[in-house]
Amino acid sequence: MSPDQTKPYEQLYTAPEDTPIFVDVPEQKIISISGKGDPNSTAAYGETAEALFPVAAAIQAACQKLGHGFTVMPFEGFLWTDDMGIFSILNKNLWKWETFIVQPDFVTAEIFAAALEEAEKNTHLPLLKRIEFKTIHEGRCVQIMRLGPPNKMAPTVAKLRDFVEASNLRPVGKHHIIYLNDKRKVAPEDLKTIIRQPIA
Length: 200
Hints:
Elements (H helix, E strand, L loop, with lengths): L20 E5 L2 E9 L6 H23 L9 E6 L15 E8 L5 H15 L8 E5 L2 E9 L6 H13 L8 E5 L12 E7 L2
Antiparallel strand pairs: 1-6, 2-4, 2-5, 3-4, 3-7, 6-8, 7-8
Helix pairs in contact: 1-2
């Protein structure tokens, strides 16, 4: 069985449901698609998973041939507004978003390009042309676990923000959601997510 790439960074993919925790997120490679609008009503947001996973699988297969086995990582997303001071569930129509899947350090731009070409042969999805290969670095963050549908996570987000304020810190960067199980295959009430916020 291929090794699970979450193992070296297990603390990044777990958190209690009652109290936020601090994590230090290293630089990571990702494949991603960007867009804008309410994630719950913008069709493209959900469709990005259909485009990203075939490319992630093609990358996995290519790396396996090179002797680098691994398990495809979870589906994740950044959410933000140009002015994060007005970022709120009350104005989701102003949100921008970027969905992505983290890639192992040994994945190169050449491996990504070949995998994207392979996926385009097999799926012909328009969103494939919007996939980027890039590097991100969040640094110091707080995160908490959420069980249930994404459109009802306001109390959990509020708990995270209250924790940041009580710790004499401030949110910076982009709001981050990690879907620990496949949102395409589980009931909304069974969806497990990590909610993460970079801080300063």
